[in-house]
Specification:
Elements lengths: L5 E6 L8 H15 L3 E6 L4 H10 L2 E4 L5 H11 L3 E5 L5 H7 L5 E5 L11 E4 L9 H4 L4 E4 L8 H8 L10 E5 L9 H8 L8 E6 L6 H9 L5 E5 L4 H7 L2 E5 L3 H7 L4 E5 L5 H9 L3 E5 L4 H17 L1 H13 L6 H13 L2
Helix pairs in contact: 1-14, 3-4, 6-9, 7-8, 7-12
Organism: Niveispirillum lacus
GO molecular function: hydrolase activity
Protein name: UDP-2,4-diacetamido-2,4, 6-trideoxy-beta-L-altropyranose hydrolase
């Protein structure tokens, strides 16, 4: 029997950096593991809840003492990793150039197109990614661009394959601003939206266990026990999404998950890198969008008002869902990315 291939995944998660990098790498790790690959995560920062998730999944985790190329290459030697996945806005082009010779193949997960990537594969599923300057930033790399390569976790794929209730029968709104909610929108939106909900409509609020404002979120949700259900570190996001009639979320990786489930959504743009995907979703009439990069109180008011308007317009929500479903996101992106990496590794 041949020895299993080992791949090192370099990503971070923190309240400031968010959890999206680790979460999409988790989807890729699942797909690699399904193919007999042994994933090892290498981090400088990781939230406690995500570390627990990696351990529960059986993936290796290693804390790097620093961000020197030597630290990563030493770890790669220790775990016998022949492949590297890098998902970071913070690691420089010089760092990437220094570590590349240590691996048979390097995959760069990228959203920005703002630096040399020194990779054999570049992943960017955003609309228009193939028009970015990757021919210059990664001249030797194969490009995995567009929606066929969306990285969706197993729980989302399973929910997408299960029969779901019609929108007209769903009696809950889902609120999730990411694992860390760095802009702090959860509390002000709960305070405005919960008391204004129609009778019998629930609000499912999802928060990460490492959210710095978790105590405030708990207190805000506890004020409305008849309307609000709080889920901390939920392992059932696929189920919560598939059972809601509307989702309020930031315009990050959750957008792809909602699209795979054809869930009508209201996207809040809270960071510059979220704007292209959110605006594309609006242009396709897949979602409504709110600009939330300004004053937090004003953003929360806009989100709550728009959410109530959308909830009261069932035909509009049904049309959003219909258009998303017609988009044809098949949920097999992680498998495609894993296969492309294994091909580069020569396995």
């Amino acid at each position: 029997m041949s020895e299993a291939i080992r791949v090192l995944i370099r990503a971070d998660a923190s309240p400031a950096k968010g959890t999206g990098h680790i979460m999409r790498c988790l989807a890729l790790a699942e797909a690699l593991s399904d193919r007999g690959v042994v994933p090892h995560f290498a981090t400088r920062e990781i939230t406690g809840s995500l570390l627990e998730r990696l351990i529960e999944a059986g993936y290796g985790h290693h804390t790097l003492a620093d961000d020197s190329p030597a630290a990563l290459l030493g770890l790669a030697t220790s775990v016998q990793a022949v492949g590297l996945v890098v998902d970071s806005y913070w690691l420089t082009a010089a760092w990437r150039a220094a570590v590349r010779p240590g691996f048979r193949a390097v995959l760069a997960l990228d959203d920005l197109g703002d630096r040399a990537l020194h990779a054999d594969l570049v992943w960017n599923p955003a609309p228009g990614a193939d028009a970015l300057a990757y021919a210059r930033l990664a001249p030797d790399a194969s490009l995995l661009a567009g929606e066929p390569y969306l990285l969706l976790r197993r729980e989302i794929r399973q929910a997408a394959q299960a029969p779901n209730r019609p929108l007209a029968e769903r009696q809950s709104i889902l609120l999730t601003f990411g694992g860390s909610d760095p802009t702090g929108l959860t509390v002000p939106v709960v305070k405005r939206l919960a008391p204004a909900l129609p009778p019998g409509i629930g609000l499912d609020v999802v928060a990460g266990g490492s959210n710095n404002a978790l105590g405030c979120i708990r207190a805000a949700c506890a004020r409305f026990p008849d309307q609000v259900r709080l889920h901390v570190d939920s392992r059932e996001m696929g189920l919560l999404m598939s059972e809601c009639g509307l989702c309020l979320t930031a315009g990050g990786g959750t957008v792809a998950e909602l699209a795979a489930l054809a869930v009508p959504s209201l996207l809040a743009i809270v960071a510059d890198n979220q704007a292209p995907a959110a605006l594309d979703a609006r242009a396709r009439q897949w979602a409504a969008v709110v600009e939330a990069r300004g004053d937090r109180a004003a953003a929360a008011e806009m989100i709550s008002t728009k959410a109530l308007d959308l909830w009261s317009d069932l035909p509009a929500r049904i049309e959003l869902s219909r258009r998303i479903a017609a988009g044809g996101i098949d949920g097999q992106g992680a498998a495609r990315v894993a296969a492309a990496l294994l091909d580069k590794l020569g396995s």
